[in-house]
Write a structure and sequence with these properties.
three-stranded antiparallel β-sheet, Immunoglobulin-like, mainly beta
């Protein structure tokens, strides 16, 4: 007798994380492997002093936004103008999680 099981693995890290900025918002996009089982995404972001790399590859939490598993875009609003932000996207499921690379981006100055 053969038994078959569906094995669920932690999702792979989201890829191609990118953002477009305005003076008070960031439009974020990413890709996820079609074979991954993802329950939801968490977007973690924080203001930064403009350094290009987060210490130890992480971001201190300023805010955490949970996004449904079928989304591949999100707009962070209510941000301050002319400020650098670091963003990490975390893909989660019942088995585990995996995070993207850290993205650093600056909001525009008002009037730009």
């Amino acid at each position: 007798m053969l038994l078959f099981y569906n094995v669920v693995l932690p999702p792979s890290a989201p890829t191609d994380l990118s953002a477009e900025s305005s003076s008070t918002s960031l439009f974020i996009e990413w890709k996820q492997s079609l074979s991954d089982v993802v329950s939801n995404y968490s977007i973690i972001y924080n203001r930064t002093d403009g350094c290009r790399k987060a210490p130890s590859g992480s971001v201190n939490i300023m805010a955490l936004m949970n996004v449904s598993n079928d989304q591949r875009t999100y707009t962070l609003t209510g941000l301050q103008e002319n400020i650098y932000y670091q963003i990490v996207l975390v893909a989660r499921n019942i088995v585990g999680k995996n995070k993207s690379q850290v993205l650093t981006i600056k909001t525009l100055s008002d009037g730009m």
